[in-house]
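name: query_chain
kind: protein
chains: 1
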Amino acid sequence: MSNQQAAWDIRKEEILRQFSREELSLLEASTVRVRKARGEAVFLDEGESPKVYIVDEGYVRVCHLTGDGKRFIMGVLGPGEFFGAVTPDLSLESPEELLEVVREAKLLVIEAGVFHGILKNHPDMMLRLAQLLELKKRHFQKRLTSVLFKDITARTAELLLELFGKTGEDQLQITHQEIADMLGAARPVVSNVLSRMTKAGVLGKQGVALCLLNRAAMADLWENGAAALGVQS
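structure:
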């Protein structure tokens, strides 16, 4: 179990302890636990009522569908992160957005009306969720800028810093294909970038895990892309 998963399991228990027995029963009755395989999609406008989606295990990417059918990857969610109609009248959800599973995932799908009703009894939690939504919105805006103006080296560095930050460790269990899926890039291209990072001493390997050896150098790659490795993008 990763540090990210372990931290979420602990935090989940802390959150649940704040709810009354009646609230817990109501929440349990309105929650559906679903397991999704790699590559499966969850369309956020499915069903007749808005939902809250919480990642219990695994990774999913948030995608936006353009009018011509193209897909833009807005971000990656791991254990404990949420999407959808999280707070009343404040949602990042739209019919053009969906979740795609990168690594086999377990999702908690909660009826938004029930979730909002419980939140009204916990204003501090509602405020915290609103703050997190605002941070997530800013992150998505930065991701759009990155896709438009940064090369694949910079985008890979940005994603790795994000994932290493989520785990709280300098070691990450992830495959080249999963990184490519999160970026919407071809695996050989991503493997080439990771190889260059390894040769430069920015990344290392321990078994099947990637190790972050030089965080400052990775941040430089995020900022300057392939030029920081002395190669053209």
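note: DSSP finds eight helices and nine strands in the chain.
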